[in-house]
């Protein structure tokens, strides 16, 4: 098949990890007879430096003409002045909003090969395989706000409407139907009005899915359960803010933040694919970045935007084989143990493919 992919390398380790994921996609194209065209564009801090805008119009136009976006990471200390008018993160939030990518899928799996590398006891990790469905275009991230300016107060507002919760809840229940048929909805309904609406709406949507079990967990308790009984979760449905926090916590289960991919989807097959990690400016340019999260994001792109499930599985299997063979980037190497570069790790994945 023919597909056009907009690549947004972004900042820090972003360019290093996206370059490797593009190589993997090129290999998939060659092996399975597809024709992928890649368009690189500016977004984030690098876009601010070159154009003054975190999300230039040209980038949006390129993305609009694509089947999917592959993104590295955005942000860095040089753009973190709290009084700055433009911030790299606005580029990312702007894309999510522009394309109304309201459902963010973040699968978290514990890799047996990395069990020793997590701070949790190995027996707790046995069977960990969960999928976060994070609401991505509403809530605290997009509510009315007042910046601090020179004043002595500032605020952000959490607003959720019934349709906003409904559409993401449907994504979670449908995903659960293809998995272990269990949705855990996270909220703070004991305190927050928007979260009471969230719970009421999820309960209502659940009426359409009698084959899926639903339970509700308060977010504070959820942080605890994620480390005390992580294998008990199947699909975790959460608001924008809570999903952000909980998915970073859950990444520990996978051995490293560098392992985790994500897909951000709306109501069509168009999607944005990015690792959940940030730009890691402290290790940028040293070959220390773990490209796994981005390579697995490319696999999700194949699956969700291009409908190429066998190709996606092949990439996922290649990553698993690479880890099983003992290949380790710096973040997942044993203390004082040997590690290979971003590039060498990707070479191994390509070899397995
Ligand atoms: C994420 C990131 C972003 C978010 C930042 C970079 C704006 O943390 O994708 O989880 O908070 O959504
Ligand atoms: Mg985050």
Task: Describe, in plain words, how this protein is organized in 3D.
It is globular, with a radius of gyration of 20 Å. The longest helix is centred in the first third of the chain and has 19 residues, at 14-32. Strand 8 (182-187), helix 7 and strand 9 form a beta-alpha-beta unit. Helix 6 packs across helix 7 and helix 8 (219-228) packs parallel to helix 9 (240-251). It has helices at residues 14-32, 45-51, 57-64, 88-98, 122-125, 162-177, 193-206, 219-228, 240-251, 292-304, 309-324, 342-352; strands at 2-10, 35-40, 68-73, 103-109, 129-135, 145-146, 155-156, 182-187, 213-218, 235-238, 263-265, 271-273. The strands form 2 sheets. It has a 10-stranded mixed β-sheet, with helices on both faces. Strands 6-7 form a two-stranded antiparallel sheet. The chain is an alpha/beta fold and 353 residues long. It is built from 12 helices and 12 strands. The chain has 2 domains: 1-111 and 257-353, Isopropylmalate Dehydrogenase (3-Layer(aba) Sandwich), CATH 3.40.718; 119-132 and 156-254, Rossmann fold (3-Layer(aba) Sandwich), CATH 3.40.50. The model has no long low-confidence stretch (mean pLDDT 96). Residues 75, 89, 92-93, 244, 276 line the site of 3-isopropylmalic acid (IPM).
Number of helices: 12
The overall average pLDDT, rounded, is: 96
Count of the domains: 2
CATH superfamily of the largest domain: Isopropylmalate Dehydrogenase
| Spatial strand arrangement across the major sheet | 2-1-3-12-11-4-5-10-8-9
Give the class from helix and strand content and strand pairing.
alpha/beta
What share of residues are in beta strands? 15-25%
From the N-terminal CA to the C-terminal CA, the straight-line distance is 19 Å
**Helix content estimate:** 25-40%
SSE string, helix = H, strand = E? EHEHHEHEHEEEHEHEHEHEEHHH
**Biggest sheet descriptor:** 10 strands, mixed
Give the uncertain stretches in residue-range form.
none
Q: Any ligands, ions or cofactors bound here, and which?
A: 3-isopropylmalic acid, magnesium ion
CATH C-level label of the largest domain: Alpha Beta
Question: Architecture of the largest domain in CATH?
Answer: 3-Layer(aba) Sandwich
CATH topology (fold) name of the largest domain: Isopropylmalate Dehydrogenase
* Total strands: 12
Based on CA atoms alone, the radius of gyration comes out at: 20 Å
How would you sum up the global shape?
A: globular
């Amino acid at each position: 098949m023919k597909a056009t992919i907009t690549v947004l390398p972004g900042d820090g380790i972003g360019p290093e990890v996206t370059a490797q994921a593009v190589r993997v996609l090129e290999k998939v194209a060659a092996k399975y007879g597809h024709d992928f065209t890649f368009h690189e564009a500016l977004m984030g801090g690098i876009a601010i430096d070159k154009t003054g805008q975190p999300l230039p119009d040209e980038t949006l136009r390129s993305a609009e003409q694509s089947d999917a976006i592959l993104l590295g990471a955005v942000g860095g200390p040089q753009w973190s002045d709290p009084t700055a008018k433009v911030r790299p993160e606005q580029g990312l939030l702007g894309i999510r909003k522009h394309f109304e990518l309201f459902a963010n899928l973040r699968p978290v799996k514990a890799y047996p090969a990395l069990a020793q590398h997590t701070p949790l006891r190995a027996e707790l990790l046995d069977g960990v395989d969960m999928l976060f469905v994070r609401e991505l275009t509403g809530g605290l991230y997009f509510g009315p706000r007042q910046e601090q300016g020179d004043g002595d107060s500032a605020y952000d507002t959490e607003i959720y409407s019934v349709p906003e919760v409904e559409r993401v809840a449907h994504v979670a229940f449908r995903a659960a139907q293809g998995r272990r048929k269990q949705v855990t909805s996270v909220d703070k309904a004991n305190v927050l009005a928007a979260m009471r609406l969230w719970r009421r709406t999820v309960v209502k949507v659940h009426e359409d899915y009698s084959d899926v079990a639903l339970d509700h967990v308060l977010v504070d308790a959820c942080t605890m359960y994620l480390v005390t009984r992580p294998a008990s979760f199947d699909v975790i449905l959460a608001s924008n803010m809570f999903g952000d926090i909980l998915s970073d916590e859950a990444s520990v289960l996978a051995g490293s933040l560098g392992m985790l991919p994500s897909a951000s989807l709306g109501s069509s097959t168009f999607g944005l694919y990015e690792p959940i990690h940030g730009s890691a400016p402290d290790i940028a340019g040293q070959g220390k970045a773990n490209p796994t999260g981005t390579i697995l994001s490319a696999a999700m792109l194949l699956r969700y935007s291009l409908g190429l499930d066998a190709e996606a599985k092949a990439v996922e299997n290649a990553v698993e084989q690479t880890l099983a063979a003992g290949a380790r980037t710096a973040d997942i190497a044993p203390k004082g143990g040997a590690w290979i570069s971003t590039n060498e790790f990707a070479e191994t994945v390509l070899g397995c493919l």
